[in-house]
Every structure is written in structure tokens, then in C-alpha cells.
């Protein structure tokens, strides 16, 4: 039997039965849909943060490259 995050198959089954009893069969798809939307928004936000970080890092890298090119040019002269 496969163990995911230290949870066995029996424990997953018990959790699923408890969710079914607490929320009912009609609410579970709505909850899953909401969780999916939340995960999608979280992923989108992290991608935006990564993109913004890469853009700001690119500017700094360009500045460092310009300075190093200038220093190398001055050393050659």
C-alpha cells in the first residue's frame, strides 16, 4: 500500500468518509472546485512574483555587465 505524506490508505478512506458525512455528496464537488480555483490563483500569484523578481534582477545584471565592460575596457587602455 502506498503512503503519501505519512497517511495510509485507511486514513485517506476515513477522511473521505468523514468529508462525505459532513458536507454531503452535493457539496464535495463545489468544495473541490473552490480549492482548485484557490490553487490556481496561488500559482498565478507565485508566477507573477517570480516574473517580477526576474525582471528586477535582469536590470541589476545589465548594470553589473555594463560596469564590468567599462572596467575591462579601461584596463585594456
Name its key features.
single chain, about 80 residues, mainly alpha, 2 helices, about 0% strand, rod-shaped
pLDDT < 50 runs, ≥5 residues? none
- Average pLDDT works out at 87
Number of helices: 2
Largest sheet: none
Number of strands: 0
Class derived from helix and strand content = mainly alpha
Rg from C-alpha positions? 26 Å
Alpha-carbon distance between the two ends: 71 Å
Summarize this entry quickly.
The chain is mainly alpha-helical.
What do you see in this structure?
This protein has 77 residues and is mainly alpha-helical. It has a domain at 24-69. 84% of the residues lie in helices and 0% in strands. The protein is built from 2 helices and no strands. The longest helix has 50 residues, at 27-76. The protein is rod-shaped, with a radius of gyration of 26 Å. It starts with 8 loop residues before the first helix and ends with a helix. The relative contact order is 0.05. The mean pLDDT is 87.
Amino acid at each position: 500500500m502506498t503512503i503519501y505524506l505519512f497517511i495510509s490508505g485507511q486514513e485517506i478512506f476515513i477522511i473521505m468518509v468523514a468529508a462525505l458525512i459532513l458536507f454531503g455528496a452535493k457539496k464535495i464537488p463545489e468544495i473541490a472546485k473552490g480549492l482548485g480555483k484557490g490553487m490556481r490563483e496561488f500559482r498565478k500569484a507565485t508566477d507573477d512574483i517570480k516574473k517580477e523578481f526576474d525582471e528586477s534582477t535582469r536590470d541589476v545584471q545589465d548594470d553589473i555587465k555594463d560596469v564590468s565592460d567599462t572596467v575591462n575596457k579601461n584596463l585594456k587602455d
